[in-house]
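Dear colleagues,

As part of the handover before I leave the project, I'm documenting each prediction I ran so the next person doesn't have to rerun anything. This entry is a single chain, and its sequence is reproduced below.
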Amino acid sequence: MLQIDEEVAKLLELKAQLGGDDGKHQFVLKTAKETLTGKYGEDSKLIYDLKDQGGELLSLRYDLTVPFARYLAMNKITNIKRYHIAKVYRRDNPAMTRGRYREFYQCDFDIAGQYDAMIPDAECLKIVHEILSELDLGDFRIKVNDRRILDGMFAVCGVPDDKFRTICSTVDKLDKMAWEDVKKEMVNEKGLSEEAADQIGEYVSMQGGMDLAERLLQDQKMSQSKQACAGLSDIKLLFSYLQLFQVTDKVVFDLSLARGLDYYTGIIYEAVLTQAGVAPVSTETPQGAPAEESVSVGSVAGGGRYDGLVGMFDPKGRKVPCVGVSIGIERVFSIMEQKAEASAEKVRTTEVQVMVASAQKNLLEERLKLVTELWKAGIKAEVMYKKNPKLLSQLQHCEESGIPLVAILGEQELKDGVVKLRVVSTREEFDICRAGLLDEIRRRTSEA
């Protein structure tokens, strides 16, 4: 009862924060809709819109970043470090085999607060590197860029100010389209001059590391942009921290990375899995030359710095600097499943440690007694929900589900005071005295 009261109290507290029934809650939702539409760029068309019974226009959340920013503003939080796993919704074209859905889970990690440049940003990249390395999904690389570098590049290439965001969205398609198609969209659909598009093409073909940032700081055109120079200086600083974190082997400074979301203000990054391996990042490619081919099999994480988003929800416009990363959980699961199928690896679908089985009929009571004994000892066990299941069916269930052990009861075992313990993977069987069964199961499951 106490737990229920605590939950009710939490709900009431949340209701009070959102404004109770005085209409403030509706105002917050309505404002959020306007903010969603204004901050996702051309991806705004993927937002699910809906109306409540009063006809008010609302939206399903597109990501976890905007709700997080609103939470910080509503609660006047200026310093927090947290992760969040939840569902998001997008009116996208689903592709089940690639882990692309309209309703899916994301895992976000964010650091909010006023800190020295690039230290929290480097930690976010370290976390992505650690996650992808631990999951062993295959070769990957983490592409990094900076919105200020992109804006500076557009300016020195002759892109009009009012076309920055729309050209940025087109550049963001370079991971899916060839440069010629991207250029055609810039010129024919976005109205950019062919000369400006060609200049952009020279820059977005560059990849490298700290040395590329140093070279661009000396570039005749880029050095004219204060924005670009500030971004390039931060890229240099970022790589110096990444060297200390020992993750520069997988990180590449890639000028083609744009990330179409409008709310990014500084560093941006994206992690992609590759089939042909990770492109070298120690030296930059020559100006205008294509980077080494590395076939992408899809983005699994992305993020960046969004220093202005919290201020959009604060009545006084107070800003809270933020940086974060989002991991596509379904995408990761899809890749892990494909790898398991390709290697014929059996995926374990249960945490059950032992199945209590019977070799003859009329032994349900004995099975239930033994499984109760195992449950009391904290061992994860189960029985088949049939009075007289066939032994072969029980053993097949263990093999299919990945249950490592089977405790088999038979009339002879009951007379002898033993249990036949079967190791599913090797099909070895041992007679274990009933008194020593718990210790034997614990020993074998701990070894596994």
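The radius of gyration is 28 Å. Residues 226-245 form the longest helix (20 residues).

All the best with the project,
I.
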